[in-house]
Each structure stands twice: as C-alpha cells, then as structure tokens.
Amino acid sequence: MTASTVNLTLLRRSAAQRFPGREPQVDQLLRYLGQPADTSPPFLFIYGHESTGKTSIVRFILSEIFDSTHAAYISCVECYTPRLVFEHILKQLGDSHPSFETGFLSNVKCDSMQEFISFMRRLDGAHQLPRYIVFDNAEKLRDMGPTFLPAFLRIAELTDIPTTIILISCVPWDKFRPRNGIQEPLLVRFPIYGKEDTMKILALKCPSDEPLDFYLSFISVVYDVFSRNCKDINELRHLVALLFPKFCEPLFDGRAKRSEVPKLFRLCQTYFAAAADKLYLREISSAEWLRHIRVRRPGDDSDDNSSDPEDSGTSILGNPIESDALHLRIKTKLDFDLPYYTKFLLIASFLASYNPARLDVRFFSKGKESTSYSKRGKQAIQKQMMSNTGGKHRQQLLGPKSFPIERMLAIFYSILVDPIENSIEIQSQIASLVTLRLLVRTSNASQLDGIKCKCNVSYELIRHISHSVQFEIENYLFDFI
Amino acid sequence: MLTSELIYCQPVLNPSLTDVTGTNVNIISKVLSLVEKTVIQSESNSALIVGQRGSGKSAIVKQALQMVSEQNHPFKVIHLNGLIHTDDRSSLREIALQLDSGSSGRASLRTFAETLLHLLAVLQGGDRTGTPLIFILDEFDLFTQHPKQTLLYTLFDLVQSQPQPMAVFGITPRLDAVELLEKRVKSRFSHRQISVYPPAQFKSYLQVARNALEVGIHDSRNRKIASTPYRTDFNAVVSQLFEHSDFVRLLRRQFDFFRDISSLHRILIPMVAALDADSPYLRLDIFQASVADQLVDMKIETIQDISLLELCLIIAMKQYLDQGIIKFNFEMVYDEYKTLMGRSGSVSGSGMKLYKKAVALKAFEHLLALELIRPLESGGNLENDPHLRASSSIMSTAGGGSRLASSNILKEFTMVQLLLEPSHIEEAVLKYPDCPPLVAHWGTNAL
C-alpha cells in the first residue's frame, strides 16, 4: 500500500466547481472509488441521458485520483473491435507511448481474451494496486461477441488483480443482460439537469463583454421555451449560441435598450419560433451561423432595417428572416435537379408506389374526362377504402410498395403533357434513377423481365419536383392527407 | 489508523473472498473428498458442480482446493474458462502453458496437432505415481459448444482410461448441462453432479450478511489482528443494525427476490463505501437509500428524462398498442401524434406545439438509440401479421422483394416495435415531472 493518498475533500470541492449540479453523483463515485489503494466494487454501471456529464466526471475523478497506469479509458466508438479494445487498454495500463524508435507502432499485439489476460498478468501492476477500466458508450460492447462482456466482468477473478469495470451508457442495464446470466452492477444514475443547474452551466459560457444578469435573463427564457422538448444541454447551448446574437441585434441598431428585456424578446420571437422548428436538426453549425451573421451585419443595416420589425414577424417567407441561416439549409436539401422527363419518371413511379393499381383507370385514363363521374366514383371508392383500412394503414403511412416497370411507364405516358416515343433514353433514365437510389429495385438483379421497383423518395421532395414541372401531384394521389 | 482498520471489513468488496458459510457444509466436504481421492489416493474422477449464479460454486471449489493444498501433497490445478477459451485450440494452448509453467520451452508449439500430440504424450506417459492433475472448467456449458466437443471427449477419456490421476470439475449454472454432451462424451462422464444452492434459510442468509460486515479477527491472509476499541465499537454497531427491524425487513425483501450472495453484497457495498473518517460506523439511512437506488426500474427512469415530444411519440405508439397494432413506422406514429395534437383543439393554448416532421424524426431516432423501440429486421414480413392483413392486399405485390427491402427502405417507413408495456407507459407518464395535464390524460386514457 505504497500509493499516495488523495485529499478527497479538496477533490470534491473542485469537482463541484467544475460540474455544477452533480454533487450527489460525484459523491457517490468518490465513495465507491476512494483512495488509490482502496478496494472498489468490481462493477459499476453509470447511466443517464446524453450530456449529463457522465464521461467528463468519471474521467476527471479517475485522472485526479489515479496514475494513468491504473485507469484505462476506452471509448467503444473509437475501439470498435475486441482487438482495438485489448490493445488500447494494454497501452494505457502499460504506459507505452508510440515513439520514433518503435516506428510509431504499438508494441502489443493482442487478438484474443486469452492473450489479453496473460498480458494483464504480466503487466507490472505496481504492487498489485487495483485497476480501473472504463468503457464509454458501452452499448457497443454487445456487438463484440457474446462472451466479451461477461469475460471482462470476471477479469479480476481471472487475473488475480483487483479490477473495477466501469460502464458508461445511455442505454439501461436491462438491455445488456445476456441470456446465460451475468454479474449485476452497482448503478449510478445521472439524471438530467434541472433549471437551476442548467442555468449555471450555460452561464459558464457567458460572453466576456456582456453583463451576466442580462445574459442570465436571456438564458432563463431560452430554457423556459425549449426545455420541455430539448433536455440536451449541448443542444440548448447551441440554441443559445444561435439566438443570442439575434437577441442583441436591436441593441446595436438602437431599437431597444438593455433594460427593455421584454421588448427584446418580442423582437426576437420569430427567431425563437424558427429555431423550434429546426430543433436538433443542426442543418447548420453554430460556427457557420456566426460567420453568416458576421457577413450580414455590416451590409444589412441599409435595407433590412428600414422595414418595420413587426412586419418581419408576421410573415416568415419573403422577409429578411428568409435569408437567415436557419432557413439556409432546407433549400439546398431540395435543391437537386433532374432532366425534365426524368422528373416525370420519378413522379410516375411515386404514383405507382402509393396508389392502388386498380384505381389507375380512374386517375389516368385520358378519354373520358367527365369530371362528375370520376369524382363520384372516386368518392365511392374512397369511402369503401376508408372503411376497409381505418385510415391508419393507408399507403402514405406504410411506405412505398413495389410496382412493375410497365405500370409505371403507362402512368408516365399518361401524365406527360406532350406525348413522346418510347425510346432507349427512357430505359436508361430508369437505370440512372436506380443508381441514384431514387428508385429501388425490388426484383432479383438477374431477372431481366418483369422488373419491379419501389420509389424511394419522400412526399415533400416529390411535391417540390412536381411543382417544378407544373404538375399537380396532389390531384392524382389516393388517400393522402 | 482508520483506513487500516477498514481494510479488514472488505469481504463485501472483494468477490474472491466469498463467504461459504451460508451454503451447506456437506457440499464442501463432497468436493473435498473428491479432490482428496485424486490427490491422495490417485483415483481419477469427474464431476459437475451445478448451481445458479452467485451461489458460491467457485468459492466452494477454491475452498476445497485450498484445504487440500494445506495437506502438503503435490498436485497441479489447471483452470479453464469457457468465456475465454472459446475454442479447443485456445484451450489446448492454455493447458500446455499451465502445465509447462516451469519450463517455458514447450510453449512455443505452434500448430493444433503438435500441441495435441505433445499434450497427449505428456498425459498418457504418466502412471499412478505422477503428479495428480485437477482440471477446473468454469462455464462448462460453453465448452460443449466447441465443435465435436473434442476437448471434453479427450479429457473424460483420459480420466477413464489412463493411470495418471486426474480429476475434471465442470462448473456451470445450467441444470441441463449434461444433456448438452454428445453421446460418446456423455458415456465417459461419471455423471456425478453436485448441486449448490444459495442459503435456503433466512437465518443463514443473515449470518452471511453479518460475516460480510463485521470486522473479523483474521485478515485476508489469515493472520490474527489485534483487537482495538474501534473494532469493538464497529461490531457493536453491526449488531445493532441486525436488531433493527427496518434493516432486517429490507434484507428479507432482498432474500425473497434473490438469494444469491453477490446480490446481497451488491446492496451492502454502498453502506460500506460510505465509511470515512467523519462517519466511521455503518449507517442505516445510507443502506435504505442505496437499496432504493439499486432496485429501480431503469426503463421508467429513462422515460423520466426524455423530452416531452418523445413522450408524446411514445403515447402515440401506445394508442396503436391499444388498438392491437404492434408494429408501426415513423409515418404512422407521426400521423397519430398529429391526430392527438389536433384533438386537443387548443394546441397553442396549452403551450404545446406541433413539431415538424423532421424534428419529430430526430426524437424518434433518439428513442431508437435509447432502445425503447426496436426496428424489426425486415419491413416485408407485414403479411404474417394479422393486424396488418387488412392492408396486405395492397402490399401483396411487395412480397417478392421483402428481403431486399429492409436495407433499401426510407427510414421513415422502417417498422418498429415498442419495447414497453402499456402499463409501464402509464406509470411513467404519471411520474413524468411537470407533465402537462393534457399529455397525462392521453397517456393514461385509451381515449
């Protein structure tokens, strides 16, 4: 027991400063881990949602208490095969660093659990002090074979050196239990942060040139608006980074003063709404967003601000807000172009995928355009279908079904405004749609006759495409809401 | 001073020191006599030790081996573990390594055949006067999965036919482990089974708990420790604990659910871990809190922390479950969510917002990542599901390509299954912090 002791009270205090709101968890962990020489429970399972401080707190505590040769930290995303896991653990516990002399190659080659255990036994354990192995994203361990995790949990028994395994995961322990039983862990739960702690954490990032009270009142509103649906601190941080410059903008134009917080919110409300629609999507990174704002700021005071701010709030389209980064990315997503006839091919395959084949005559036959008849017929069929399916199993919800190419081509020719000849180009366009993965072939690749396909495109995209060729796809779809 | 005292209070923290008091002394003597027969009387044996996890099988074997080794007869133990030696090749290598631990020259044997030949030569060359060998096969059931069970066959065959004294002990939690053996292997096995049970009487269970907590008079290396006033006080506090009705009630509860000793240790650890210079004695309140902590339903805990939108999606899935539909995709769930939001009428008034599809899809994917819902392997087996048969007439054309479809389908249409019971959801909704009454109403009522 030669290891030095650590002042736990001091450590507790510094942890409390760095991680507000996590005192109970830090306390619990410190109790379990204790001094370097103390025996620890063999198996801890730390769970909680994303961004609740699991990884950073565990790493902080381990790095403060133990030498690097007694605690190994493995991210299972990074080490995705057993071999990588073994070698990383041995590297960390064996304190070996890649160097020029060894050609930056790892000096341990370890492929199997058996070798790993013999390596572990041979490592100079510095007087057999307990060892700690942390697995982050531990849910990935289950992909490494059925014996991997159970064997690791017995590592202390197998190597005769006290070893604590710490798993960190967002997935509850129930999902880890293998069929033939396993040692049960001690659980440490990291709940999500409450409002007070969230504010404290967000306030750590207060810009240096802003008064803290002002920033806090802003954060508090962001929290109130978004917290119900967004509990992820990182996402809230992202939102704060997105919205704070917008919030402050009126200050610089002289439309409001720092004391008029409610007015500032009124001016900022549209951005809040837009951000809520884009929650979690991250169509744009906060860095991009900042860059965008910086580019805009010098130029925009001439034209944009002349318009009434109230006005920009009421209509979202066609106003300054449209050019905002929040809206930037959605455009580019739909912004891909196809040749004219290819678009129609795609539309036709969408229709074939979602409409029942027996209604094709009603929708696409050209001869009898007696509207009253077809309307009545449609309604009757719709009624009949609705009573059949109850509406919850309509094709729109179930997804595309596959169709024979011939049917799609028939629809294609009927929806074209100007008829064209069947040619090799059409066939090659179908093939290119398949390579673009807009169509998915469901029949066998070796089968050349009676090819079947599926349309792999969302409704939003197909609507966009059909509008671009002035085709009202809504009129041709059955059972769509 | 204090820490050096506390080290002795560590049977709880150290699984290898598992206490065998609770188990029947009979079992140890049975194992012991088997080992003794091999070691002292040069008689070959094989046996299977069966018992549920945490019932102390390994501890019993360990104890027996230790007792034999104190009698000063030479013997050699070879430990194999089914979790690690997952095929015959690695098992043989391990055996060769453990046999050759003195002269490492032989360990460089490369091929399977060479190792096997060498090993057989070594084992068959011995006679009754050779050093007795004890094989311990932990996780015995996993060895039966090796192709052709060559290892087991060879071992049992050697036990039966060779003069070299050998004993093979299999340790397994599977009661039907013998049935897993192939016929030719089975016929060579002695069919001796030793069953190990966790403490059957609450009294012995309490005794195990007390042994784990009390500071004994011997340390882990069996040296006597001088008595100190602190130890006396400490043990007095432990005795008080065992007289406290709450403490005994909680242990009783644990005993009624799990009898194994490792789970007992698991709930005692937090109390022991909380000892420090400021509170040097065990405390009941910490024990109560830790029992509550360790026996939570993690799924419900997980739902407590999800966002309101995710909760709404789960409730939408519950609506499907109530209708008897057990498979659904994102589009269906979103549609139901929209219906729910629409039905509430005052969407803006209640402070709830109908989220865009893309945002909801992210929430849906988060639920997938938390494994509250699970994707079904292929989207094509709809036809087999009675609830969806109504629509399968439309789907019938898709039947041929069902296998391909799973990887090709848009993620919105991938069918998923909810891994929660409706009653679970109701409980979680009621516990959800700061839940709008509207959502609580959806969650608990079938509307």
TrEMBL record, chain A:
Coiled coil: none annotated. The keyword ATP-binding applies. Residues 338-477 form the Origin recognition complex subunit 5 C-terminal domain. Gene3D superfamilies: P-loop containing nucleotide triphosphate hydrolases. Residues 215-272 form the ORC5 lid domain. The keyword Lipid biosynthesis does not apply. Belongs to the ORC5 family. This is Origin recognition complex subunit 5. It comes from Dimargaris cristalligena. The lineage of its organism: Eukaryota, Fungi, Fungi incertae sedis, Zoopagomycota, Kickxellomycotina.
Automatic annotation (TrEMBL), chain B:
One of its GO terms (biological process) is DNA replication initiation. Residues 43-199 form the AAA+ ATPase domain. It is found in: Nucleus. One of its GO terms (cellular component) is nuclear origin of replication recognition complex. It holds the Pfam family AAA_16. Keywords: DNA replication, DNA-binding, Nucleus. GO terms for molecular function: DNA replication origin binding. Gene3D superfamilies: P-loop containing nucleotide triphosphate hydrolases. Component of the origin recognition complex (ORC) that binds origins of replication. Belongs to the ORC4 family. This is Origin recognition complex subunit 4. It comes from Dimargaris cristalligena.
